[in-house]
Specification:
With about 425 residues, the chain is mostly beta strands. It has one domain: Porin (Beta Barrel). About 5% of the residues lie in helices and about 60% in strands. The chain is built from one helix and 25 strands. The protein has one helix at about 10-25, and strands spanning about 40-45, 45-50, 60-70, 80-90, 95-100, 105-115, 115-125, 135, 140, 145-160, 170-185, 195, 200-210, 215, 220-235, 240-245, 250, 255-265, 275-285, 295-300, 325-340, 345-360, 365-385, 385-400, 405-415. The strands form four sheets. The chain has a 16-stranded antiparallel β-barrel with strand order 3-4-5-6-7-10-11-13-15-18-19-21-22-23-24-25. A hairpin with a 3-residue loop joins strand 4 and strand 5 (about 95-100). The longest helix has 15 residues, at about 10-25. Residues about 1-10 and about 20-30 have low confidence and may be disordered.
Length: about 425
């Protein structure tokens, strides 16, 4: 059962902000709204501004973000991250690449007959710091491991353009074979009684579906439409050896898992032409016990409406990759206010439930089921040098960290195309 806490001060502040928007329409100026890639002229405090049109078939951008939590989860916190982003949609092929050095991904599609295409993907994770399991939001050093993976997949699929006809508005469906290599290594702090899983390959079949029907605005935020999709995976592991603390070892079986999402956005013109209502629903499930490399990774993030980024669930108030879940369900309602043609304010309410890996006092690993809920506030703004600045703050009243209930989270992201 999902419930709200008795102390409602945080929620009251949230809804007062919404009421403020309804009662003070004087802040909505009525200038022209621009859609993604569209150019034209507008006025800003009496000055005429020209916005150049942009070819969105190819995007190259650098992203820098810094995030932090209170209470902290681990060091370093705040955590800085840099990323390079490349996206190209051509007549014969398309690709998308995100490079951070720690986590990298690449997806490629080559059309070969009508709407049919050959697809290939690659993902790798190479965490430079040892990471342990958590006990009440505190890392247990005796369970620390250096871990990571590389995944290579290839297959066939279909790619169909859909309404409203922007570059990312497509329906894609692909069937892939994926070969993965997972590695696990002890750190100097890992207990002698803790046995890591041996390095192993796994072989998987994946079904990947994406439908993106969103019209996006000047800053490429969702403005109107829906999107949905799913990932279904069944995998056979070459090694299912025992792992864990001595006396509590468990086998790591082959596994099946799936996740899906559904999002929507629509202008609330009956209230104001500058308000947009949005919702998102995410869910994932596996009947198997998943280890850290194969579990659903649930955490906080920066709000972004890029076509693939919206497929990732965000648990507001959590650290970037705080929970390794066996199953989860998350729902978010959002109200977005367009204060100026380049300035947007976001107000969100998130509720959910998840079952995730945790430790007990005796270092016994088990899956813990917990409700979750958060309120969050964000600002997205055009910035100097044709860049975008995004700030998000969230408070999650259910997360336990270092013996305290409640978690504050912030993330600042700067994005510059080149």
């Amino acid at each position: 059962m999902i419930y709200l806490p008795i102390n409602m001060r945080t929620l009251s502040s949230f809804f007062l902000c919404l009421l403020y928007l309804f009662l003070f329409p004087i802040f909505c100026h009525g200038e022209r709204r621009f859609m993604a890639g569209e150019g034209g002229e507008t006025t800003f405090f009496g000055s005429k501004i020209t916005i150049p049109s942009r070819d969105r078939s190819e995007t190259r951008a650098f992203n820098f973000l810094i995030s932090g939590t209170d209470p902290t989860l681990f060091s370093p916190d705040p955590l800085p991250v840099g990323a390079l982003y490349f996206n190209y949609w051509g007549k014969k092929y398309h690709y998308r690449t995100v490079l951070t050095g720690v986590a990298n991904e690449f997806y490629f599609g080559r059309r070969w007959k009508g709407f049919w295409e050959w697809v290939a993907k690659e993902e790798n994770l190479n965490v430079p710091l040892a990471v342990g399991e958590y006990l009440n939001g505190k890392e247990v050093e005796s369970s620390e491991l250096y871990l990571g993976y590389i995944k290579l997949g290839t297959g066939i699929g279909i790619n169909l353009p859909i309404s409203p006809g922007q570059i990312e508005n497509r329906f894609t469906l692909a069937l892939l074979y994926q070969l993965s290599y997972h590695y696990y290594q002890k750190s100097s702090k890992t207990a002698d009684t803790y046995k890591p899983h041996p390095d192993t390959f796994d072989h998987a079949l994946l079904i990947r579906m994406r439908y993106d029907g969103f019209a996006r605005n000047l800053l490429e935020l969702r403005h109107k439409g829906i999107a949905f999709g799913a990932d279904i995976q069944t995998a056979i592991r070459e090694s299912t050896s025992f792992h864990g603390f001595q006396g509590q070892e468990k086998k790591l079986p082959s596994y099946f898992k799936y996740q899906a999402y559904f999002l929507g956005a629509h202008p609330l013109t009956f209230l104001s032409s500058h308000l947009v209502g949005l919702f998102s629903i995410y869910g994932g499930y596996s009947p198997n016990a998943l280890e850290r490399n194969t579990a659903f990774v649930i955490g906080g993030s920066s709000s972004a409406d890029e076509t693939e980024t919206i497929t990732n669930p965000i648990l507001w108030g959590a650290h970037l990759s705080e929970f390794n879940a066996k199953w989860y369900g998350l729902a978010t309602l959002e109200l977005r206010w367009e204060a100026l043609f380049f300035l947007f304010f976001h107000f969100r309410l998130t509720i959910g439930r998840l079952k995730f890996r945790s430790l007990k006092q005796d270092s016994f690993l088990f899956y813990k089921t917990k409700n979750t809920g958060a309120v969050s506030f964000g600002i997205t703004s055009g910035f100097f040098f044709e860049s975008v600045l995004v700030f998000d703050y969230a408070y999650n009243w259910e997360i336990q960290r270092r013996g305290h209930r409640g978690s504050h989270f912030f993330i600042l992201r700067w994005s510059k195309s080149f």
